[in-house]
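Q: What does the assembled structure look like for these inputs?
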Amino acid sequence: MADTHLDPDVLSALQEVMEGEYPILVDTFLADSEQRLQLLKQAADATQILETAHSFKGSSSNMGAIRLADLCHELELKAQGQNLSGAEALVAEIDREFAFVRPLYEEERRRSLSASLIIRR
Amino acid sequence: MIAVQPALESLTILIAEDSAADRMLLSSIVRRQGHQVLTAANGAEAVEVFRLQCPQLVLMDAMMPVMDGFEAARQIKALAGETLVPIIFLTSLSESEALARCLEVGGDDFLAKPYNQVILSAKIKAMDRLRRLQATVLQQRDQIARHHEYLLNEQRVAKAVFDKVAHSGCLNAPNIRYLQSPYALFNGDLLLAAFTPAGDMHVLLGDFTGHGLPAAVGAMPLAEVFYGMTAKGYGLAETLREMNAKLKRILPVDMFCCATLLCLSVQRRSVEVWNGGMPDGYLHSMATGERTPLTARHLPLGVLNSQAFDDRTEVFPMALGDRVFLLSDGVIDTCDANEQLFGVQRLQEVFALNRQPDALFEEIERALRDFGGEARDDVSMVEISLLEPARLNPPAVVYSDSGQSCPLDWSVSFEFRAATLKRFNPLPYLLQLLQEVHGLRAQSGALYSVLAELYSNALEHGVLGLDSGLKRDASGFTRYYQQRNVRLDELQDGFVRVHLQVTPEGEGGCLAICVEDSGKGFDVERVLERPLDPVRLSGRGVSLIRQLGRNASWSDDGRSARVEFYWEALA
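A:
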C-alpha cells in the first residue's frame, strides 16, 4: 500500500546521497510542502496555481512521493488549460495525500536519526 | 591539438533553484561528484553570484520567483561573453514550447526531475568537455590573432627599415610613373631608380622568389649595391656583376631575383637594358608607335656563379619623349575564375587600344580587374620617359669632408691595356680622384659626362675601331653594340691612356684631361666642321665635349683628345 505513495528505492538513494543530512532534507521538504499547500489553498489565479503546482510536483518527485507528484502534475495541467473547474477538489486531494505521507516521512527521519546515533556509538 | 584533460576536474557549479529541498538535494549530489557548489534561490541571486564568483557551469531552475530562470540565463550568457558557461535547465517542463524557450535564451541542456545522479554526472561531464573545447578554440583564435598581429608588426618594422635602405631613390623624378602596392616588397617586388654622376638614370625592377619576409630580405643588399655603385659612376655591367655575386653568396639556393636593369641616357639618346628572367619590357617609340620588346636574355640574379654570369647588355636608341615600360609577372599571371592567365596577348591588346600614353596604367589595371575580378598586390609597373636634361633635377651630391686637405697641384697618368679594358671600368676611380678637388665638385656632372665620353670614344672608336656612323639609325645602333661586345671579347692588344693634370690658378684652378688611344684616329677637321648638335646619335660625342668642357682639341690624327675645366675661388 505504501509503495503507491512512496517509492522506497528513491528513499534509499536519497539517504545514500545525503548521508547525515538526510533528516534535514526531509524536514526541509516537509516545511516547503506545508508552505506550498497553504499557497495552493489561497491561490487567486491560474498562474499562481500553475507555478506552485509545478514546483511542488518537482520536489515531490525528487522525494519519491509518487502520488503527490502525480496529483500536482494533474493540477498543473488544469491550471495550464485555464480550466480551474475541479481545482479546489484536486487541492483537497493533494492536502489529503500530503497528510498521508507526512507521518511516513517523519518515521523515515526518526529511523535515520537513530541509525546514525547507533553508528556514532 | 587539444590535450586530453584529466577526466575528473573539480568545477565550480552554481545551482539556482527556489525549492529549498531540491536545492539541498542537488547540492549534495553535485558535491558528491567532486565539485564546488554555489547556490541561489532565485534568478536575481543567481546573476549576482555569477557576477561575483564566476562559476564554470550553471544548473538553473526555469520557474523561480523574483527573476525566472530564462531571464537569469540570458543575463549570465551576456556576462560570460565569449567564454562558454554551460547552463543546464532543471525542469520537469513537458511542453515543447517551454523547452524551446530554454534553448532560445542560451540554455545548453535539460535535466528533468526527479534527478538521476548518473544522468546528471554524464551531463556535467559532457558540458565540461564542450566548455573546454570552446576555451581551447578561443585560446587558439587569440593565439592566431596575436601571431598575426606580431607578423604585421614585424612587417611594419621591416618595411620601415627597408624603406630607409631600399628607398625609392629618384622614383619621384618627373619622367617616372610607377604603380606598386605599398607592401610590394613583401611579395618580393622591388623598384629602384637613381641618377648616375653623369646625369643618366639607372632603374631596376626586381622580383624575388617567394613571399613575405624572406622575399624582402634580399632587397636590402641589392638596393645597397644599386645605389652605391650607381652613385659612384659604375655602369650596368659592373653593378650587375656585383649584385649577382652578392645575392649568390647570401641567398639560399632556391632564392634568386628576376630583374630588369636599365640605364637611360639623355645625352646619348639611348637606353641600355639587361633583363634576367623578367617578363618582356617594352620600348615605346612615340614617332612610329612601335613597341620593341625588351626580352629576358639572362638567368635571374643570384643563380650563376661569377664566372658563368653574363653581364652583356643591349642598347636601343631612344628619342626624347619615348617611353620604357616594365612590369612584374603579377600583371600577366593574374588569373580569372577558371585559372586562366591574363597573359602577354591580352597585355598587347591593351597596348593596341591605348590612345593616351598617360592612361596606360589605368587601362591595364582596368583590364586586370575586368579579367580577374580580384586585385593582386604583386602587380608592379613602371614607365620611364626620356626627357630633356633640364626637366630632370639630379640631386646635389652632399660631401662630408671639410675641404682643408684638398690637393691642388698634381698630375697622374694611367695606361689601361687590353686585358683590363675587357672587364674593368676605370671611370668611377678617376671620378673619385677628381672629386678630391673641391673646386670641381660643382661641375662634376659635366666632368663625368665628358670623361665618360672621352673614354668610350677612345675605347670604342679608337681601340675597337667601331664606326660611329653605324649609330645613325635604330638597327645600326643595335648592330653597333653587338659588334662592341664581340670585339671587346676578342681584344688582344691596344690601350687607353688617361692623363689628368690639376694646377692652381690664382684662387681657382684648372684641370686638363688628356685621353689617348691606340686606334687608327679619325679626320678631325671633317668632324669639327659639323655644327654643334647634341641630339646626333653618331659623331663621337665631339659636340658634347666641346659644349661641356673648355678648349677641346684633338691631335695625333684624332688619337689624342684634350679638354680643360676651370674653377674660380670657392666661396
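Chain A has one domain: 2-120.
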